């Protein structure tokens, strides 16, 4: 049957920045002006709709409150956004939104839906379902009102996979530990974009055979290794060298690095001084 579609493409800031009235506006004021322009465009098109026919708003916009991935927050943070009330107008039977990659339903009456992207683009979308919505609009024969249904149909999409591995300090063959973790995920790794995150101690870093690890993950479409190395905190002697500092001064510096209470530090220094003196007497 016949359907009405109001389409709203992404509005770039450059569309209004060239105008004289925006010359001295702040970024926030420019975003507010863009929001008003988009709201006015939607309102003007609603007046042109025939209420007897089903209608859809297809808009490339960011609606406030929509959830995005952690990485995407860095790129979307300064963009202009519309309020949900700006798009959720009952004049439309269905509001199809684009721009946010995560699938989500912002409203059911009327339906305001981000179908999300068909492909994953980074690891923030690793757990996101990807696909499309099949929307059906039918008229109720008894009431004459239109009924809307929308069903999600998943697609396979590009697979992103993160493998987290913790290497214990006593592990003498961390490469073997990593290889076992890769083998356990072998079916998922094939043709996937894989991120291997390894948490390890400083002393284990030199025991890694990177070539063996990359060879084990060769079936991946893309493979990267990120190592989070835990380094042992070393005591800084400040103005002293190891030859100049006395045993008691070294003990005091060590206790201060542990951020103990003054009472506890004083007690340990007292015992330490006694032990140091006893050792000197023996010598």
What is the oligomer described by this structure? single chain
CATH topology of the largest domain: Purple Acid Phosphatase, chain A, domain 2
Q: Overall pLDDT, averaged?
A: 87
Largest sheet: 5 strands, mixed
Percent in strands:
15-25%
Any low-confidence stretches, pLDDT <50, length ≥5?
Answer: none
Judged by helices, strands and strand pairing, the structural class is alpha/beta
CATH architectural type of the largest domain: 4-Layer Sandwich
Order of strands across the biggest sheet? 1-2-3-5-4
> What is the 3D form?
elongated
CATH class of the largest domain: Alpha Beta
Number of strands: 10
Count every helix, treating DSSP H or I runs of 4 or more residues as helices. 9
Structural overview:
The chain has 283 residues and is an alpha/beta fold. It has three domains: 4-154, 4-Layer Sandwich (Purple Acid Phosphatase, chain A, domain 2), CATH 3.60.21; 160-230, no CATH class; 247-282. It is 30% helix and 24% strand. The protein has helices at residues 14-17, 27-46, 73-76, 84-87, 174-184, 186-189, 210-216, 247-257, 262-282; strands spanning 4-8, 55-60, 94-98, 104-108, 111-114, 131-139, 146-154, 160-166, 193-201, 222-230.
Summary, kept brief:
This protein has helices spanning 14-17, 27-46, 73-76, 84-87, 174-184, 186-189, 210-216, 247-257, 262-282, and strands at 4-8, 55-60, 94-98, 104-108, 111-114, 131-139, 146-154, 160-166, 193-201, 222-230. With 283 residues, it is of the alpha/beta class.
